[in-house]
Amino acid sequence: MKASQFLISTLKEAPADAEVVSHQLMTRAGMIKKLGAGIYTYMPMGLRVIQKVEKIVREEMNRAGAIELTMPVVQPAELWQETGRFDKMGPEMLRIKDRHERDFVLQPTSEEVVTDIARQELRSYKQLPKNFYQIQTKFRDERRPRFGLMRGREFVMKDAYSFDRDRDSAQASYQVMAAAYRRIFDRFGLTYRAVAADSGAIGGDLSEEFQVIAATGEDAIVYCPNSDYAANIEKAEALAPQGPRPVATQELAKVSTPGTSSCTALADFLGLPLSATVKSMVLATDEVNDYDEVTKTRVFLLLLRGDHEMNEVKVGKLPGLELGFRLATELEIAEHFGCKPGYLGPIGLKRPVTVIADREVALMADWVCGANEIDYHLTGVNWGRDLPEPDLVADLRNVVAGDPSPDGKGPLAIERGIEVGHVFYLGTKYSQAMNATFLAEDGKPRHFEMGCYGIGVTRLPAAAVEQNHDARGIIWPDAIAPFTLVICPIGMDRSEAVRAAAEQLHDELAALGVDVLLDDRGERPGAMFADWELIGVPHRVTIGDKGLKEGQVEYQHRRDEAATKVAVAELLALLK
Ligand code: ATP
Ligand code: MG
Ligand code: MG
Ligand code: MG
Fold this sequence. Notes:
Layout: H1 21-28, E1 32-36, E2 39-42, H2 44-63, E3 67-68, E4 74-76, H3 77-82, H4 85-88, E5 95-97, E6 103-106, H5 111-121, E7 130-139, E8 154-164, H6 167-188, E9 192-196, E10 207-213, E11 219-223, E12 230-232, H7 233-239, H8 252-255, H9 262-270, E13 281-284, H10 291-305, H11 308-311, H12 330-337, E14 352-357, E15 364-370, E16 377-384, H13 392-396, E17 413-427, H14 429-433, E18 437-439, E19 445-447, E20 449-456, H15 459-467, E21 469-470, E22 473-474, E23 485-489, H16 496-511, E24 516-518, H17 525-535, E25 539-543, H18 545-549, E26 552-557, E27 564-567, H19 568-575
Parallel strand pairs: 3-7, 14-16, 23-24, 23-25
Antiparallel strand pairs: 1-2, 4-6, 5-6, 7-8, 8-20, 9-10, 10-17, 11-12, 11-17, 13-14, 15-16, 17-20, 18-19, 21-22, 25-26, 26-27
The structure holds adenosine-5'-triphosphate and magnesium ion (3 copies).
Residues 419, 422 line the site of one magnesium ion.
């Protein structure tokens, strides 16, 4: 590949909304381009990375005996109604109507469709086990799309679904996938941990998440350095001797009485007019699922945070935005006010939460705010300025570093992770709901035993960057680099020798199957090196007139401090 025939478009500055390094660097490296909140174009440079991820996933899924198919992005609501998930999924599922007013969903996952396929195609136990997978676009209307590809609304997932005749066989299929996942994540060249995850009521211990270790990870994982024990924090907490954290409700009456909008109540209580000037605010705690109540609180806090225009706004008098009554997403509100959706969360229900407001408000502590119902409040809210951002893991959790490991092998450690994969034994949950059966050996119909297995194909590159970067840019592991090696000729336009050597090396490497790019753009060395260091190509060969006279070129790995002179002949050996 020649740079002149490709698109290289790097940026000096990261976009203002890019909070984490992977979002900043992938945007600056010209790999992704934002089209809307949580919706990105995979630009040619980024697509190459995604395709390498897909290739590894595909090879290992095929090796593990899974069969590829592609299920539609747009799926009729009927199937989702069969399992009840059309209602249960809530606002994360994007719904659309066709011209006949029929309901459809954009697939957030595909258990329903694949189970429908199984009940039609897999009639006999003789056809089992089967594992179907796809690498396909998903849509989830995430409460907080953010961090670029990390938490997109539209993203690519590899999702696989296994069908078995009985529980033992299903658990064997699960283990085949868990082993395949280890091979896949080993091949990516990232540091990761497989951790036990909550499998709901059905699965026993058969749910694991694959977490790429990174300080910016949204998940907390708990492990014992002396043993194999590793779990995500939710699972670890559920197992903790002291049980889940108790909810403090004693302060509830102070801020909220039934029938009063909690927003108004909180404002009254704080003695703040709702048009108060609050410039910035951070709410921090862990994930919550109760969208409704959280949203109400966020509406209020957004108002307080606002700029001058927002200060004119009166709560409850916004057209179409009856605060406390109608739900609105942060984006919707931001759009309404013409302001940027800021970092406003996650807000925790039934969890302590810290509010940091840049405003002349006395520092107050441990408030309760949120909704109108007992047990649906934020507890332990701290309201004031200059509060340090809490360590979410240590401060808010029941399990903390140093606690004894459940296997008794030593003290627990806690680190941050990015969930890049998830394997899950489902049992007969979906096959029962959809009456998906096959004929068993005794001639009687039986429900399929199922498992599901996801990999965040577009999240993976972001996780890789979080783990592998420096001040100059990305450092891709070889396996998923957009190009493995870049040839940087110096003065190619002036020196025929340099041009010939660069082209020859390019052709030789390409013939050997090396994913090589020749930078023939004619950029100055400084600009050229800066681009490739930002883009993160792991291997670089620089060719100049002076070195060539001695039969030498310069080789530098992206992690090396300086280049090494090597004879052209030796270079190929070095790269093998
Ligand atoms: P999360 O906890 O991060 O919201 P999840 O548990 O909802 O993820 P799963 O339903 O287990 O996700 O989906 C399988 C995989 O898809 C996840 O392990 C993750 O790698 C990826 N994934 C999920 N949501 C997103 C998203 N919004 N953007 C990018 N990748 C995602
Ligand atoms: Mg999710
Ligand atoms: Mg998860
Ligand atoms: Mg998951």
